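Internal QA ticket QA-208
Title: Verify multi-chain structure generation after dependency bump
Assignee: T.L.

Test input:
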Amino acid sequence: MTRYLSRRLLLSLITLWLLATIVFVITNVLPSDVGRTILGPFAPQESVDAMNQRLGTDRALIVQYADMLRRLVTLDFGQSFVSQQDVLPQILGAVGRSAKLAGLALLITIPISIVAGLYAGRRRDSKRDRAIVLLGVTSSSIPEFITGTILVVVVGVQLKLLPVLATPPANADILTQVRYLLMPATAMAIVYFGYIARMTRSGTIDVLQSDYTRTATMKGLTTSQTMRRHVLRNALIPTVAVIAVQIGYLFGGIIAVEKIFNYNGMGATMLFAAQHKDLPMLTAGVIVIGIVYMLATLGSDLITAWMNPRIRLDA
Amino acid sequence: MDYLKLDSVRKSTTPLQLDVVEAYARGKLSRRAFIQRATILGLSGAAISTVIIACGGSSSSSAPASAAASAGASAGASASAAASAGAAGGTIRVACQRPGGPLDPVAMVDLASYGITAQSFEFLCTLAPNASDIAPGLAEKWSSNDALTVWTFNLRQGVTWHDGTPFTAKDVVATMERLVTAGNSGLKGVIDKGSTVATDDNTVTFTLLGANGNFPYLVSVFNAQTLITPEAYVSGTTLDKVPAGTGAWKLDSYDIASGAKFSRNDKWWGGQTLLDGSEFIFFDDTGSMVTAYQGGSVDALVQFDVLTGAPLFDDPNFTVVETPTTNHRQIWMRCDKGQFVDKRVRQALALTFDRPALIEQLFKGKAIVANDHVIAPFYPYFSDTVTQRVQDIDKAKALLADAGVTNLKATLNYGQLSEIPDLAVLLQSQAAQAGITLTPAGMDNGAFYGAQWCPAAPADPPCSGAAELGIVDYGHRATPDVFLNSAFKSKGVWNSSQYSSAPFDDAFKAFQSAVGVDAQKAACANIEQILNDDVPVGIPYFYNYLSGNAKTFTGVYTCALGQMFLSAASKVA
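Actual output:
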């Protein structure tokens, strides 16, 4: 296990380095004047020069690259070109908001979709199975921005049951925050219901057809015992992998949902940074999302190993 | 006509003021134009009211700006001036566009930044509650010499910055020096370094580079960068990093990604505001703002467009404020190089505009036709002597043929802002009728200004790196000076068409130095004729500015440059 974790950590560091390098290369491939971008077209040249000197963007690219790597090691992302404030607190704030939204979406969708997938898998080809499959295909076919818009119009504007903006007031209690996030989280949960339920159903069917399940049934275990002891663990292994990938995706921010609900999560933050050529913010965002992806997949591997002892992490 | 009353004013006026009074008395000026001109020239509110009454009018409802001016200590923005029968307390949530960057009051170029900075900072001349004219702000009164080259502003006394330090003439001088250095305002070419002098702590004198009868407008809300900032500010200091101001609201927090929060300045010179605070929520599109209002998440919209804001017109709980303005779009064409050097080509493109159709399709009629110049019909010095250009495809084709141009193909650059993408598509289809192939090329509006409209390099002349053809937005100005000075004067700071015309420069100079209404009208007639004929830019329309608020609030008023004033706002009791 230790060897496995060490290897994964090393791979993660290499991946992060590659990510940072790619972002640096892409954002510097075209000649641009960072100081001018920040201060605008009418700023006097001396102010632009001073700004470039202050930011260090007047130095050779190789020096800037080395400096960026050095600062990344200490998670010093520098200052945002746009807000001219430290990047790290802003990124962490956005990550925190995305975590709340993604967490609530997963909290809604995981139990419902797993139960639905198991139920459908056990009753393969029944009317209820087909209904769940159809529901899953439909829900994952409708983009988040469609369901989000419908929710806004119906639940927010017409019925006025929930706020149409997702950002809760400052210092809001947990219930208030949930109330504000419920609509965007639901819009996201609807899409992921389809993916997770179908994956669970498929895993369940596979496991139910396996030799060890037949053996368990033949040796006299009840259906619920078989499901609990043999089917559930094995059927959920691919589901866990899917959820892990979705966690990274959700943290990365569903830009459309964040836009519809005017929510300042990672998606909106990254989009804004890209539009304004805010390199430090963009780099930090990519690195943070990369870290989230890696942690999620690592967690997925560990859970998978725990669920299925046949999988040897050290292999 | 009550000559006795009129004479009492005549005796106390300067020659310039007398000219305006006489023009009004002889029916040459409308009441509104009279109030506007008289306010610029520093005629007191009491005198303005007296003239209106003497000429047979009622001053009470017709002279809001002057009423504010006459109050002296209570200017247009004062809490008491419009303190309606509202309840004390509460916070108003305002939906506005997301600012383009840090809140740099000198370098800002977008309406959203104008609106946020104007909550804390103030102008020498602020917006009158009628939302059209200027009224005393940090300057209590002003006057000029007869040649209109030296303007003296008497500053309001007892004003303090939010940190308690007194506001003085030194702050004004420092602000003007920064503005001159930056070159990002309508003051370029009007004043220079050293033009602004503090005569004493409460008096500032501007010695202009040339005569200018509209100068107070250039240090007013209508020249958004002229917010007075502390002497301690330096180039690049931003409001969000160094919160300050003399205004009614103190900036508590600012997050470009989400919004800004303000709380009441208890020591504001205008009196105590009824609201406890305000919250500006940033959006990237109007549709989301409208939805947020409909869902009860915001109370007011700084601006919305007629198409996405359509539901608001039918909402019985929403007050729509529709203001005729000089807001317009300029379709610039490079006059110095490229395919539009020949003015017949530029005229041809302008002749393809179906202006009434554009207005109907883009604004549902809430705009007026423009004639390829910036002198809007409601300016008091507008001249109707220039024939309105209308769509004439045959003539456009003939002009192109005369110019020897066939298969004209050009990229029409624009920023993704409001109706502009739709305008680009409509212009494309209209131009195609004359055989002109336009290819609309849109981009993020924040990037557009620096990439297509007015790139920083080459810096001399300004905007000489602009694209050959494009559409750019211009906000409302109560006088055309900023438009003329920045977009059309040779080497103007926003002259993206690189228009350089000695006759125009002379005509503009004549307009600025014109003394009296007749002279200004004559100068404007010349300007209109030159611009209409040369067509450095096509201007199809002036559109109405739309803003509004829930009827649960009152006393909200908005400048068509994006500043929403809340000092007199309150919740309806």
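Spot checks passed. DSSP finds 19 helices and 25 strands in chain B.
Status: verified.
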